[in-house]
């Protein structure tokens, strides 16, 4: 382990030493690879820039995506294009004839081997290998080498494609209700054979719906449509939109299919548009035709529901499945191993009810959420004049055991680990999940009382849990059927964690019960009515002296957090996830929680707390985390985060449990500060005795606080292939609310906004699809720990002397995005 940490120290030291020369070398290389003319033929021009001019109050969203020709990616406002540079660097070293000859040689070699054998398995194996090798070489012949595939050739201006872009734009405008719109196209030749195109949008008058009426032949269908007219996406006074008409067609289709019209199709829905060209008004007629063979649409009512729980079971041909009925569902199985009541709770279709597509999909999804089946199929049989619902599932293996070895990166520091997980499904026959998992690992962490280098942290934990697919006490049986659509779970957990760090050894014994449920797919709630922790710590003598010094001279009660303690809490949390993690889409992530510690102690205090000499904690804690990703294009995104928290202790010791404090600084926080070293407020860390070599501040101590406010903004853009870059600004701090804290560390509304630590920087992201490796360089811009008037420290940033008097540049290594 020491070898790994020493190696990590060496790697980071070399990264720091080589960072500035590397950046300069890359910049020199880029400056020599601007989008140039040497790759053009005599009459060719580069498509350098495309802009759109439009009137005020006109929304241009979506127009740029319609360009048939796209300009080369470049670092604006310069002409530097890394993809172009890579493409031609690869092309200059690519010999297509060489690969064609290699392909022919491989084909001849395998054909000879295939001809020489009569063994069919051997022939199949050789053909398989031949095809794989030939496909790999064919890809290079067609697409070039790796640099050519990652890069892009210069985009040559083409007037024919320019006309196609114009047609696309005008069609798009027409579909948005600008029936008389036209697009003027002009282009200018710039220096160095570059073309700049300007598309001028002349939208003309906007057309609005004046009248919306229905022409529906089936009276029953018409009644249903009119009853739900308030949900229509097309309303009088709104602007015409072809996209909205398509969505309205989908809405009508789903409405009918949720009300028994199993055979209904979107093809029956049409829209007739009558425009009044003088007044820009539209009469819209919504038409729903009848099927060809009858003059009405048939509603389907379910005659029976059959559930086969072991549909893929084989080897039991001589046995017949047992049949049992429960809740108007016929269950078929060779062995009666699943609780029918639990299964019935997750079936939302019912005998004698109308067919519903939404209930059908919900049934499939909620049965799959039980994590007991390989697949869930639900189909309907309309033969014989009946409408029969058939559910088919196949059980997953009841026992699974998985082992894993890997490496984590926590706050920029690496550490290997091994883990093991044992799972038993359907523990008591009620589709419960029992899990026993353990983990042992090392982490390179910044010590609580040290500012530089790696320290070994050993952590081992074991957890045992049972997850029930319903709410347990105090909910009644009838409620279980009512809430089943929300994927209710109850998890009971017992665990033990041991941590060995240079300053202390700490053990935590945990017991908890948690209710979890979903609201649709985006919103999830979690409620833990009881989370109990017994914490014991053994502190090294030097660390104990440090804690005593902090308490005596700075009023910092950190020492209380390392006393043997008992922490009980109730936690309610909410998570909203709208496509977050999908870089190509606009997405939002929100997590909020409220926690009350020691609430049960107000009602009852167990005697073992006093007998064991445990320190009880009573506190209140809130946290809120908002993350937003805005996809500007397929290769560009703007992301931001706002994270805040508040904790208040009202027990005798007046401190939060150490794990419940907030911290700022690190690779997932304000990246210009070392992990957990920013704050408190404008209270400065101790000054170094030798700042010229050791740095201005002594960042030996972690800085736990009870108030956290931090925010980050980040521009993300693809460079080439799997390599992306980011530019970012982080701001944040933590403050104390303890009454014995000094004024600089305390939170106050009249000064907190002056005490944000601000950092900026840039980074590289290696996106391997299954893994994102991140390297960020954080640079301090504003340090609240310095005296007012001297807090702007950006000009003092130093790559060359990372720990001298000048402000150090912080190097962060991480896995995944920072937020």
Characterise the protein shown here.
With 819 residues, this protein is of the alpha+beta class. Among the domains are: 95-143; 208-288, membrane protein fhac (Ubiquitin-like (UB roll), Roll), CATH 3.10.20; 304-395, Ubiquitin-like (UB roll) (Roll); 662-680 and 705-819, Porin. Helices cover 22% and strands 35% of the residues. It is built from 14 helices and 28 strands. The chain has a 17-stranded mixed sheet that branches. Strands 8-9-7-11-10 form a five-stranded mixed sheet. It is globular, with a radius of gyration of 33 Å. It starts with a helix and ends with a strand. Residues 1-32 have low confidence and may be disordered.
Which short descriptors sum up this protein?
819 residues; alpha+beta; Ubiquitin-like (UB roll)
CATH-assigned fold name of one domain: Porin
Distance between the termini: 29 Å
Mean pLDDT: 86
Q: What does the largest sheet look like?
A: 17 strands, mixed
Gyration radius over CA = 33 Å
Q: Looking at the structure, what is the overall shape?
A: globular
CATH class wording of one domain: Mainly Beta
Count of DSSP helices? 14
At the fourth level of CATH, the homologous superfamily of one domain is: membrane protein fhac: a member of the omp85/tpsb transporter family
Count the E strands.
28
Tell me which CATH architecture of one domain applies here.
Beta Barrel
The proportion of residues in beta strands is 35-45%
List strands and helices in order, with pairings.
Blueprint: H1 2-31, E1 46-53, H2 82-91, H3 96-115, H4 120-143, H5 146-150, H6 159-175, E2 182-190, E3 194-202, E4 208-216, H7 219-227, H8 242-257, E5 269-276, E6 281-288, E7 304-308, E8 322-326, E9 329-333, H9 340-345, H10 357-368, E10 373-381, E11 388-395, E12 399-410, E13 413-425, E14 433-445, E15 455-468, H11 477-483, E16 489-500, E17 504-519, E18 523-539, H12 541-554, E19 565-578, E20 587-597, H13 607-611, E21 615-616, E22 619-631, E23 636-649, H14 691-694, E24 707-720, E25 723-735, E26 757-767, E27 772-782, E28 809-815
Parallel strand pairs: 1-3, 4-6, 7-9, 7-11, 19-21
Antiparallel strand pairs: 2-3, 5-6, 8-9, 10-11, 12-13, 13-14, 14-15, 15-16, 16-17, 17-18, 18-19, 19-20, 20-22, 22-23, 23-24, 24-25, 25-26, 26-27, 27-28
Helix pairs in contact: 3-4
């Amino acid at each position: 382990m020491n070898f790994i940490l020493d190696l990590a120290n060496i790697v980071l030291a070399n990264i720091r030493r080589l960072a500035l020369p590397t950046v300069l070398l890359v910049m020199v290389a880029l400056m020599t690879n601007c989008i140039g003319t040497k790759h053009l033929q005599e009459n060719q021009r580069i498509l350098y820039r495309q802009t759109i001019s439009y009137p005020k109050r006109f929304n241009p969203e979506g127009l740029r995506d319609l360009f048939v020709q796209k300009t080369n990616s470049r670092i604006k406002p310069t002409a530097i294009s890394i993809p172009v540079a890579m493409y031609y660097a690869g092309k200059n070293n690519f010999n297509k004839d060489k690969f064609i000859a290699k392909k022919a040689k491989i084909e001849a070699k395998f054909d000879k081997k295939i001809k020489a054998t009569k063994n069919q398995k051997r022939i199949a194996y050789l053909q398989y290998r031949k095809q794989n090798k030939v496909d790999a070489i064919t890809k290079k012949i067609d697409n070039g080498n790796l640099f050519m595939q990652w890069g892009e050739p210069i985009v040559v201006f083409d007037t024919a494609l320019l006309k196609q872009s114009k047609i696309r734009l005008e069609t798009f405008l027409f579909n948005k209700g600008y029936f008389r719109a036209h697009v003027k196209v002009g282009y200018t030749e710039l220096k160095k054979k570059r073309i700049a195109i300007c598309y001028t949008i002349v939208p003309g008058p906007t057309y609005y719906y004046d009248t919306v009426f229905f022409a529906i032949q089936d009276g029953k269908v018409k009644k249903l449509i009119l009853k739900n007219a308030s949900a229509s996406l097309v309303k009088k006074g709104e602007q015409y939109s072809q996209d909205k008409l398509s969505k309205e067609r989908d809405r009508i289709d789903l409405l009918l299919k949720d009300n028994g019209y199993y055979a209904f199709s979107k093809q029956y829905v049409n829209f007739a548009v009558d425009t009044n060209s003088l007044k820009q008004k539209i009469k819209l007629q919504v038409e729903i035709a009848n099927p060809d063979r009858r003059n009405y649409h048939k509603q389907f009512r379910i005659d029976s529901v059959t559930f086969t729980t072991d549909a893929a079971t084989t080897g039991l041909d001589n046995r017949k499945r047992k049949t049992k009925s429960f809740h108007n569902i016929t269950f078929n199985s060779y062995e009666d191993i699943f609780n029918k009541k639990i299964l019935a709770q997750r079936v939302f279709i019912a005998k004698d009810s109308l067919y519903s597509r939404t209930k059908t999909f919900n049934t499939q999804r909620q049965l799959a959420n039980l994590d007991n089946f390989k697949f869930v199929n639900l189909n309907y049989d309309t033969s014989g004049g009946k409408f029969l619902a058939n559910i088919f599932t196949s059980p997953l293996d009841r026992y699974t055991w998985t082992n894993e070895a890997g490496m984590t990166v926590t706050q920029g520091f690496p550490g290997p680990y091994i883990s093991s997980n044992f799972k038993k499904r359907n523990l008591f026959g009620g589709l419960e999940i029992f899990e026993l998992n353990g983990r042992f690992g090392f982490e390179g962490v910044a010590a609580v009382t040290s500012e530089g280098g790696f320290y070994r942290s050993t952590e081992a934990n074991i957890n045992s849990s049972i997850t029930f697919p319903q709410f347990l006490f105090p909910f009644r049986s009838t409620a279980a059927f009512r809430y089943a659509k929300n994927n209710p779970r109850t998890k009971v957990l017992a665990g033990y964690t041991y941590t060995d760090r240079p300053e202390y050894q700490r053990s935590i014994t945990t017991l908890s019960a948690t209710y979890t449920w979903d609201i649709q797919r985006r919103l999830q709630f979690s409620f833990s009515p009881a989370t109990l922790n017994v914490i014991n710590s053994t502190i090294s003598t030097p660390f104990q002296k440090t804690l005593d010094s902090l308490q005596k001279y700075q009023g910092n009660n950190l020492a209380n957090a390392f006393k043997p303690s008992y922490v009980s809490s109730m936690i309610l949390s909410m998570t909203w996830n709208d496509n977050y993690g999908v870089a190509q889409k606009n997405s939002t992530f929100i997590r909020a929680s409220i926690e009350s510690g020691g609430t049960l102690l107000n009602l009852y205090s167990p005697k073992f707390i006093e007998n064991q000499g445990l320190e009880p904690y009573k506190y209140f804690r809130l946290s809120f985390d908002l993350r937003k990703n805005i996809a500007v294009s397929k290769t560009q995104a703007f992301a931001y985060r706002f994270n805040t928290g508040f904790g208040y202790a009202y027990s005798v010791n007046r401190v939060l449990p150490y794990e419940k404090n907030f911290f700022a600084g690190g690779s997932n926080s304000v990246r210009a500060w070392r992990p957990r070293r920013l704050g408190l407020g404008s209270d400065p860390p101790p000054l170094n005795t030798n700042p010229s070599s050791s740095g201005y501040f002594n960042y030996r101590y972690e800085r736990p606080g009870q108030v956290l406010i931090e925010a980050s903004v980040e521009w993300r853009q693809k460079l080439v292939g799997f390599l992306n870059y980011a530019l970012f600004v982080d701001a944040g701090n933590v403050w104390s609310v303890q009454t014995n804290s000094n004024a600089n560390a305390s939170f106050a509304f009249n000064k907190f906004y002056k005490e944000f630590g601000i950092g900026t920087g840039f980074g590289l992201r290696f996106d391997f699809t299954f893994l994102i490796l991140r390297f960020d360089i954080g640079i301090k811009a504003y340090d609240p720990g310095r005296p007012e008037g001297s807090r702007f420290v950006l000009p003092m940033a130093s790559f060359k002397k990372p720990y001298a008097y000048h402000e150090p540049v912080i190097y962060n290594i991480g896995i995944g995005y920072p937020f």
